[in-house]
Design brief:
It contains six helices and twelve strands. With 245 residues, the protein is an alpha/beta fold. The chain folds into two domains: 89 residues, no CATH class; 145 residues, Metalloproteases ("zincins"), catalytic domain (Zincin-like). The strands form three sheets. It has a four-stranded mixed beta sheet, with helices on one face. It has a four-stranded mixed beta sheet with strand order 2-4-5-3, covered by helices on one side. A four-stranded mixed beta sheet has the order 6-7-9-8, with helices on one face. Strand 8 and strand 9 form a beta hairpin. The chain is globular.
Length: 245
Amino acid sequence: MHALHSAPSACRAGRSAAGRSLSPVPADEPLEYAVRRSARARRVRVRVESSGQVTVTLPERAREREAAAAVNELRPWIDRRLADVGAARAAIPRVPGTVPYLGRVLRLREEPRRTRAHLRGDDLLVPSGPVRRDAIERWYRRAARAEATPRLDGAAAALGTSYERLSIRDQRTRWGSCSATGAIAINWRLLLGPESLLEYVVWHEACHLVAMDHSPRFWTLLESKLPGYREPRDWLRRNGAALML
């Protein structure tokens, strides 16, 4: 299966990680991080989420101090990742009480008796209280299917092929994927960015229906169908971490 990867990154203790620093971070400044344990983990892992949360995953029998040791060892890489996340957030200014949608700005309007989010013009009507966040995400998932399906149908038809099914997901490290059987997955968070991002990922995965690799043939095919693909591709690489509610 071929997948288009996104911004959240992880690093194993004991290995180096590449990155670029966008702003200096004092090495002696305390760093907050969360610790979780996993029965499946075989070694300590450090992850910098797109939200800026630093999470250390420990094997069940590992000592708590191993988390601190891993953070200390990987601190330069963590600081670079946090700087990248901050720069990505700055690329998409947010106005309180609004959410982005394919380049548009939607106003959030709370209605206490509402259980589902609903779009009315430029207003997104949402429930109030703690269920609001989940209702908004469910709306984005429905909208992602409605937006991606006709685009994918059109791309597959233009390529003279077909796909098995479309799934809408919230993948941590992928914007989209295409399996050998023709099952395509699209990340709903693409709707939080410009429309060109969704268009690019749809065409990227559709082209995998014809070329299941990233060979020169694949990129030539993609360019023939979407000549400007490099701009949204590069935007995702730079700013993908900002695509979050």
